[in-house]
Design goal:
The protein has about 300 residues and is mainly α.
């Protein structure tokens, strides 16, 4: 009898410990299963952490063996707004990125719809031409295009970089076409039976169902315009009033290369809009990238 009681007591003491052990093992099991992803996350976050720590260091601490700032120099972020026209750079980049994205969507969505939904002679040739345009380096056409904009008197501004998107973007058309192909044609046929024309099918059927693909394409264009350095170098280098953040930061670094704390502080401020936009749009962005390209 005493043995049975002792056994029950021992079981009662040991049983509650199993869930605790399981809870303790869960984080370790998760890390073991995702060790590659954890390593990649650390690999990608390490440069950002380095930039942040350098941005709050004094000039004597930067590029030394010091890892943690001592003291933490938050004044670098205040100096960033005082020593450079950072707000003007942000405004120029926003004008460039938003204008390019809007014009790209207005022109590329109808083109992608036609290539994915309407059969006509020469469609395959046009699609091949779009692929070729994707592979063509911009430096090949830089000289004649620059001469054209120079004769129009638009050099020194961001308009030569924004207005071409009104004629469509090759990569955006390709990406949107691939996404439109994933939408079943039965929806389009049903809309036509209800009396909708091609514009009605596009606006009432395709666009609502293609929001992830459109969002992914818009984010690609926005980020490419925000981070563009080569285009502003060609067209706005002689006019500091139209410098975007990418070109302005590169110019500041070439002049004040020894002040790494201030340079890294400006770099962190430039990263903030991009990180915030991607944080709020990551779900629809990942969904658009995942579904794009399912059909050829």
């Amino acid at each position: 009898m005493t043995t049975i009681v002792n056994a029950e007591v021992l079981l009662g003491e040991t049983q509650p410990q199993k869930p605790r052990r399981r809870r303790a093992q869960k984080p370790l099991a998760w890390i073991a299963e995702h060790i590659v992803l954890v390593a990649l996350a650390v690999l990608f976050l390490a440069p950002v952490l380095f930039v942040f720590l350098t941005s709050v260091m004094t000039t004597n601490q930067t590029l030394t063996a010091t890892i943690l700032p001592n003291p933490w120099t938050w004044a670098n972020y205040l100096d960033a707004f005082q020593k450079v026209p950072l707000l003007r750079w942000f405004g120029n980049s926003a004008f460039y990125a938003v204008g390019s994205t809007v014009l790209m969507l207005l022109s590329s969505i109808p083109a992608a719809y036609v290539l994915s939904r309407i059969r006509f002679r020469g469609a395959s040739i046009i699609f091949v031409a779009i692929i070729v345009a994707m592979l063509l380096p911009p430096q090949v056409t830089a000289v004649p295009v620059y001469v054209m904009w120079s004769k129009l008197g638009l050099t020194g501004s961001l308009l030569p970089l924004i207005l071409p998107n009104a004629l469509g973007d090759a990569f955006s058309i390709f990406l949107l076409r691939q996404f439109f192909l994933t939408i079943p044609k039965e929806y389009s046929d049903a809309a036509r039976i209800d009396g909708n024309g091609e514009w009605g099918v596009l606006v009432r059927v395709i666009l609502p169902m293609a929001k992830p693909g459109i969002a992914a394409t818009a984010i690609f264009m926005f980020f490419a315009s925000w981070n563009d350095y080569y285009g502003p170098l060609l067209y706005t280098s002689e006019n500091p009033q139209r410098w975007p953040v990418a070109y302005g930061l590169a110019t500041f670094r070439s002049i004040h290369g020894t002040n790494w704390g201030l340079t890294m502080a400006i770099t962190m401020l430039v990263l903030v809009p991009v990180v915030v936009i991607f944080f709020f749009a990551q779900k629809v962005f990942v969904e658009g990238i995942t579904l794009t390209g399912v059909k050829g």
